[in-house]
User: Fold Sugar O-acetyltransferase from Lactiplantibacillus daoliensis.
Amino acid sequence: MEIDNDPAYQQMINGELYMESPKLLKLRNDVRGKIMKYNQIADNDERNAGMASLLRSVGDRFFVEPTFEFSYGVNITIGNHFYANHGVEICDEGQVTIGNDCKFGPKVGLYTPVHPLDPTVRRTEAERTAPIKIGNDCWIGGSAMILPGVTLGNNVVVGAGSVVTHSFPDNVVVVGNPARVLKENKPNA
Assistant:
């Protein structure tokens, strides 16, 4: 992709402190306009084809309800059989990788930006990112938030309204703010 050659883009996806470049700003504005257009399309196939065309890659059976929002799209990779309910938002300044057979409830948010703690640096509008990785067979409940740098293993269920501040291994149900393990989630157990 053309944006891959932009030094600010490389700093952004590498988790380095960066400032938005003219190329990043143009990409964000172009994508924003297309997202607004696609979210207005009632036909499921047409809407989903449009949204999928804006992402780095998607697998088979990609389905998102309106509104589906993201920052750039080029940093989002989604596996097979993905469903996102209404109002899902992905701030993909950093890399976001979602495995196969994942479902997102309404108003789920994935946030990769990390704003500086030092107010002097924060005033410059510089930020960095931390990637989010979600394994296969995950279910993220409505209004849950996944924060920067989180990795969820396979078969993780995140309870509705949870705030996931750190990573979790395979086969757990996590709930709360901050999210903690409620119980194991062994398949066929």
Summary: The CA atoms of residues 157 and 173 lie 5 Å apart. The two ends are 44 Å apart (CA to CA). Helices lie at 7-13, 22-39, 44-53, 119-122. The first helix runs from residue 7 to 13.
